[in-house]
Design a protein that fits this description.
Largest interface: B-C, 51 and 49 residues
Strand content of chain A: under 5%
Number of helices of chain A: 3
Largest sheet of chain A: none
Structural class of chain C: mainly alpha
CATH architecture of chain A: Orthogonal Bundle
CATH class of chain A: Mainly Alpha
Number of domains of chain A: 1
Helix content of chain C: over 70%
Order of helices and strands of chain A: HHH
Number of strands of chain A: 0
Order of helices and strands of chain C: HHHHHHHHH
Oligomer: heterotrimer
Radius of gyration of chain A: 17 Å
Largest sheet of chain C: none
Distance between the termini of chain A: 50 Å
Shape of chain A: elongated
Shape of chain C: extended
Structural class of chain A: mainly alpha
Number of helices of chain C: 9
CATH topology of chain A: Helix Hairpins
Radius of gyration of chain C: 24 Å
Chains: A mainly alpha, B mainly alpha, C mainly alpha
Chain lengths: 102, 484, 229
């Protein structure tokens, strides 16, 4: 198996791990981190599979896509964190209402 | 003719995206003048849409290569009848929302609303015109972030938690979609829809991509059981934001799903159509029952959105051109009617200070225009003739019987009954006197009239059907041919 | 439901959830492994169009030329995130806790170097890994260091100049696009000789904007533009 596929499988693993954490954890900060891990997984899959080119240089288009994706992820995380702080300030809790333990 | 020649050759696709972007930047730089600048931009976008409409009708579907590179290296914009219809609908509803919001928001909030709303409009136009699945991801993210920020504008605890939930859901959906894009790119070497349509063959990676992208887009379109985030977000947002969320934002992800389903996904994916139809049917019934149980008007309207979106998915198991057109007609009328309903709810909220259905306190007498708007919108949502909703449902019924899948007809009828129940419930309470009379605030005329005009548009769609339906015939995917 | 039933059902739910996710991971792994070992993708197309793209770095060529429209929209995403953060509330009050000696020393030494490095990354992006986003991130890091050491912009720069700096990147990109559109009717199609220069211009504006936007996002709220003290 090409080593490229090893990276891609790690990416799949990160994606699923992030999804699991997003579903299971109730603290909003953990959820935000989980989404970030998922994003890293997807980016890893994108970049890794671009290394299957026959020559020495990898396919640059997935690299550019991932740069775009990283910027989008950073922007979304920043908004999510600011929202988290406001939710905390307004409700005093860092969990969504339906997920608070009684 | 010289004028005709210049209109035909102007790149309206590009202007449709650049105009709201520029408008947003200008409103951000000059917050004091954001309301007039924003309204001016809205008018400009409407004008641009008429130009694009003329161009597509005269010349057929348009394909614009950005940067001159052309797919698969560059990104293409594509405007056919389907995207044109959605763009026109966005422009009309968008203009209405702009006028409504100028009466709704006070100046400080309006200065924050307009840049965000114009960015959202730019994202919508860019999404509807894009022919590249990775570009669609970027537009989806732009759409999602601006929508979340707009929901949070209301500032209270409910709105903030709803916005937080909406953001997490939106990001989850986008990431599922992006993983699908990654698999498709690495399978076929392109992210252009037209090129992928030619290259896609069933394979494990393609099936995975189909599942991932559909899951992500269904989450964003709030199909049962992935609808849990929608009612709180749409209900706790400010009224104009609720209108644009229910009318336009949920339409966008459905549009992408439709495009992918019809053009990119292999034909053997049609078997999953029955599952989508089943979920849609459940959404219709579940949304209707939940709407009936609500005590607050905006939550009722939000659950109504969940139900109405379910109808759209009844077209998937039917699969005929007539069924798709019916679903799209429903989408079109729903956008107008739902925007009108949320605007009416906003008027009632402004008037009485609350939106409890049981305490509506003779709104019928004191806000006649608003109640007329709500009733007319209700007629379209119920699917009574003559309205756009009736046409859409009738087309779906026709397709259901044509295909021999008569059980969808049952769902359509039951859904209509449930809708009638909750619409009449609201209208009934609007005529009764509440136990405690509330202080009444003035409602600006602009707010009442935009609600009424949009509701009228939803009803008129039932009378002027040939035009929109003819538009849908232009270019793929309903005419069976490709353009560009 | 008794407590024991509750415990059983939640345990069952957890196992079902775990199994479903493992199935998802397995399915995705199978899909990934089924892809062919070698694939050219768009590599050849990019390489063969490099001379007319105006830069020598293929990733920069894709980001700023071939798929420049994606980058334009992405800068919009960055700005929208900032607008959202600003709409949520004002930044925390500026507590003038002076930086300790270590931080002060670091800031004095590092910040000028970081600005220089940002400039270098911007310039070298045309031929080697680098470019607007990388340079903008380093610039933002310098800004964050300054914020952490309790330095803030003078108040008169907080209104219009700050907004202008934030808008500059997307604005430059849109301006270049509109100019090209009105001159030649082709959106973002750089004339062959000018491509390199236009890309550098857009990247320079973008670097400043990205740096300021990310630093402003770190601040976490609308900066107070009113008089203090």
């Amino acid at each position: 198996m090409n080593t490229v596929f090893l990276y891609a499988l790690v990416g799949v693993g990160l994606f699923t791990l992030g999804l699991y954490a997003l579903i299971v954890h109730t603290h909003l900060l953990r959820k935000i981190l989980a989404v970030n891990v998922m994003g890293s997984g997807v980016f890893l899959v994108l970049v890794a599979l671009g290394g299957r080119t026959p020559g020495a240089s990898p396919d640059p288009v997935p690299h550019a896509m991932v740069i775009t994706g990283i910027v989008v992820a950073v922007s979304a995380t920043a908004l999510a964190l600011a929202l988290l702080l406001r939710v905390r300030a307004e409700t005093g809790r860092t969990r969504l209402p339906e997920e608070r333990l009684e | 003719m010289l004028v005709g020649a210049s209109v035909a050759s102007t790149p309206w696709c590009v202007i449709a995206i650049l105009l709201p972007l520029t408008g947003a930047l200008v409103c951000f730089l000059w917050p004091r003048r954001s309301v007039p600048l924003g309204l001016l931009t809205a008018l400009g976008i409407v004008a641009c849409m008429t130009g694009l409409c003329w161009q597509v009708v005269e010349q057929g579907a348009q394909r614009y290569t950005i940067g001159g590179w052309g797919a698969p290296l560059g990104i293409d914009l594509y405007a056919d009848g389907l995207s044109l219809l959605m763009l026109l609908m966005t422009a009309v509803v968008g203009l209405g929302i702009g006028i409504y919001s100028s009466g709704y928001f006070e100046h400080k909030t309006a200065a924050v609303f307009w840049p965000l709303w114009l960015f959202l409009w730019a994202a919508l136009n860019a999404l509807l015109l894009s022919a590249d699945i990775f570009n669609l991801y970027v537009t989806l993210e732009l759409l999602g972030l601006s929508a979340v920020a707009l929901v949070a504008l209301a500032g209270d605890a409910d709105a903030l938690t709803a916005a937080m939930r909406y953001l997490l859901v939106s990001l989850l959906g986008s990431l599922f979609y992006l993983l699908g894009v990654a698999l498709l790119y690495h399978s076929f070497g392109s992210v252009d829809i037209a090129i992928l349509a030619g290259r896609v063959e069933p394979s494990p990676a393609v099936w995975a991509a189909v599942g991932l992208m559909s899951a992500g887009l269904l989450l964003k379109t709030a199909l049962f059981p992935l609808h849990f985030w929608l009612p709180p977000a749409h209900a706790s947002a400010p009224a104009p934001v609720s209108a644009l969320l229910s009318a336009l934002v949920v339409m966008a992800s459905f549009y992408i799903l439709l495009r992918l389903w019809l053009e990119v996904f292999p034909p053997s994916a049609a078997a999953a159509g029955q599952l989508l139809g089943l979920l849609g049917a459940t959404a219709v019934l579940w949304g209707g029952i939940q709407a009936l149980r609500q005590t607050r008007l905006k939550l009722l309207i939000a659950y109504s959105t969940v139900a109405q979106l379910g109808y759209l998915f009844l077209a998937f198991p039917l699969g005929t051109s007539f069924a798709w057109k019916g679903a799209l007609y429903l989408l079109l009328s729903h956008a107008m009617a739902k925007a009108a309903m949320f605007m009416a709810a906003g008027n009632i909220l402004r008037f009485g200070g609350h939106d409890r259905i049981a305490d509506l306190d003779r709104v019928a007498q004191r806000l006649p225009l608003t109640l007329a708007a709500f009733s007319l919108a209700g007629i379209s949502i119920m699917g009574l003739p003559p309205s756009g909703g009736f046409i859409g449902k009738w087309m779906l019924l026709d397709a259901a019987f044509y295909r021999g899948q008569w059980w969808w007809a049952l769902i359509l009828i039951m859904g209509g009954l449930l809708t009638a129940a909750y619409v009449f419930k609201v209208v009934g309470y609007a005529f009764t006197q509440a136990e405690v009379t509330h202080e009444a605030s003035r409602v600006p005329a602009g707010m009442e009239w935009t609600a009424l005009v949009l509701a009228l548009a939803a009803v008129l769609l039932g009378l002027f059907t040939p035009l929109p339906l003819a538009l849908l015939d232009l270019g793929f995917p309903f005419s069976g041919g490709y353009a560009g | 439901m008794s407590a024991a039933d509750h415990k059983w059902s939640s345990l069952a739910l957890r196992w079902v959830r775990l199994l479903l996710l493992l199935a998802l991971a397995g399915g995705l792994a199978y899909a990934v492994l089924s892809l062919p070992d070698q694939a050219i993708g768009l590599n050849d197309q990019v390489r063969s169009n490099m001379e007319t793209s105006g830069v020598h770095n293929p990733v920069t060529a894709v980001l700023l030329n071939f798929r420049g429209y994606d980058t334009l929209l992405e800068m919009g995403v960055l700005l929208v995130a900032l607008l959202g953060v600003w709409s949520l509330g004002a930044a925390a009050a500026h507590r003038r806790v002076g930086p300790g000696p270590v931080l002060s020393f670091l800031v004095d030494g590092l910040v000028p170097m970081m600005i220089l490095m940002a400039g270098y990354l911007l310039w070298v992006g045309a031929a080697a890994p680098g470019g607007a986003f990388q340079a903008g991130s380093v610039l933002a890091a310098a800004g964050i260091l300054l914020l952490l050491s309790s330095k803030r912009l003078p108040v008169r720069l907080m209104r219009w100049p700050l907004r202008f700096a934030l808008v500059l990147g997307l604005g430059a990109f849109v301006a270049v696009g509109v100019t090209l559109l009105s001159v030649s009717g082709l959106f973002l199609q750089y004339p062959p000789g000018l491509a390199g220069g236009l890309i550098l211009f857009i990247e320079a504006a973008a670097t400043l904007s990205i740096g300021v936007t990310l630093a402003a996002l770190f601040l976490g709220g609308r900066p107070e533009a009113g008089p203090r003290r």
